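Support request, please re-run this one:
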Amino acid sequence: MGQSIVFQSSAARNGRLEGLQPIKRSADWLQKHVPYAAEPTESEVQAVLYTGLKEQGINVRMEVVVYPGDSKMTVRRLDLVIYSKDNIPIQIIEVKRNRLPKSKSNARYHGRKSVNPKHSLDKQLRRYDWFGLSIKVIHGMREAQEYLRKDHSSCAKKQCLSSS
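Re-run finished. Output below.
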């Protein structure tokens, strides 16, 4: 059994919740219930792409809220969007942690019991086609690093291609 660690909420530390008792959890319990991810998370891959593109002088934004204007579509968030120097969107970058599942047995990748076409990448990309922008899908950290090794100077000139 590992050592015990005592945690207290920030509200309790700041005196906002009187009578709240510290929670005692063992390190073993914490590792079981708050596991360390074996592979980079999707947001970590996004952060690496964002930082790498910014370092190359590319005008890029994360978690861009879009308003499609079609009554069938709701407000969406795009993982990353590359903009021209004039802040005109050029390319959408969709980030996935890993490759998509090809069967029901791999659907656990998404935390679902079955593969539902409503949640498929193809359907997501068809929605993004509505914007008329180049779309690049990046699966995992390895592809993100490969993408960053390429020359993206064309993105600044409004010629960013999905193959870049």
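The chain has a mean pLDDT of 75. The chain has two domains: 4-33, 42-157.
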